[in-house]
Design a protein that fits this description.
The chain is an all-alpha fold. It has 2 domains: about 80 residues, Multidrug-efflux Transporter Regulator, Chain: A, Domain 2 (Orthogonal Bundle); about 55 residues, no CATH class. The longest helix is centred in the C-terminal third of the chain and has 35 residues. The chain starts with a helix and ends in a 29-residue tail after the last helix. The structure holds FE2/S2 (inorganic) cluster (FES). The site of FE2/S2 (inorganic) cluster (FES) has 12 residues, from helix 6.
Length: about 150
């Protein structure tokens, strides 16, 4: 028996109360393989305590737009038979860094150019920073850059 199995387990109600996630969400995470539980002889779920960290991870991942399949892939790198170590959690955080950096850059671009777009109002699909955030023509300024007088 591993040390993971010797840790006191918690009910789904306790997990919900401590994680701030509805029991229905916990069941959904479990149905999708993001968390797991054991069952009592009466069929009630029991979770290892590290489920709370996993749920916090899932919620953080969802808040930055990761799909369930991506979250599942990240979590698949963690051990099933014991609580993950600090290093193992840090490895997952490192995997996320490029994606988070990209999202931050996109949000910073929108923040910095939103006032220009509001003042412009052209809503050009070719050059608008809001409607087409990756468009290079927008670097020349707001408005339709390719139209001539
Ligand atoms: S409204 Fe965005 S560039 Fe004109």
């Amino acid at each position: 028996m591993s040390s993971h199995q010797l840790e006191p387990e918690i009910t789904i109600g306790e997990a919900a109360a401590r994680s701030g996630v509805a029991t229905s969400a916990l069941r959904f995470y479990e149905e999708n393989g993001l968390i797991s539980s054991s069952r009592t002889p009466g069929g009630q779920r029991r979770y290892a305590r590290d489920v709370l960290r996993r749920v916090a991870f899932i919620r953080a991942a969802q808040s930055v737009g990761l799909k369930l399949s991506e979250i599942s892939e990240s979590l698949s790198g963690l051990p099933d038979d014991r609580a993950p170590s600090k290093d193992e959690w840090e490895n997952i955080a490192e995997e996320w860094r490029p994606r988070l950096d990209s999202q931050i850059a996109t949000l910073e671009g929108l923040r910095d150019n939103l006032a220009l777009c509001i003042g412009c109002g052209c809503q050009s699909l070719d050059s608008c920073l809001i409607f087409n955030p990756d468009d290079k023509a927008s670097e020349s300024g707001p408005g339709a850059q390719y139209l001539t007088d």
